[in-house]
Amino acid sequence: GQRLRARVLIGCDGKTSEVASRARIKRTGWRYGQTALVCAIAHEKPHDATAHQFFMPAGPLAILPLTEDRSSIVWTERQDEANRIQALDDANYLQELRPRFGDFLGDISLAGERFAYPLELSIAQKFVGDRVALVGDAAHAVHPIAGQGLNAGLKDIAALAEVVTDAHRRGEDIGRVDVLERYQQWRRFDTMTLAIATDAFNRLFSNDNSLLRAIRDIGLAATNSLPGLRRGFIREAAGLTGDLPRLAQGKPL
Question: Could you tell me the domains of the chain?
Answer without folding.
Answer: 9-26+125-249 (3.50.50.60), 32-120 (3.30.9.10)
